[in-house]
Amino acid sequence: MKFRIIGIIKMKNKEQKFSKIIEAENEKFALHKLYSVMGNSHGLKRKDIVVDKVEKM
Fold first, then answer.
1. C-alpha R_g of the chain
2. pLDDT of the chain, 57 residues: tens digit per residue
């Protein structure tokens, strides 16, 4: 299944909105994959990523 995850990334002095499409078995795995991908590519911790909405596509 595909999930669209919408939220905010907290960086040093600003916040950035994001929308990411993740393919996973369920919502829990989609969130885990999002934290992993965003953390790896932007050097963020889980506490810096705020998820507002998860939609099944």
1. 11
2. 999 999 999 988 899 999 999 999 999 999 999 999 998 988 889 999 999 999 999
Q: How far apart are the C-alpha atoms of 21 and 47, rounded to whole Å?
A: 20
Domains of the chain: total: 1
Q: Which residue has the tokens 């953390």?
A: 39
Q: Which domain holds residue 26?
A: 2-56
Q: What is the largest CA-CA distance in the chain?
A: 35
Ramachandran area for residue 49 (φ above 0: left; ψ -120 to 50: alpha; else beta) = beta
Q: Are 19 and 57 in contact (CB under 8 A)?
A: no
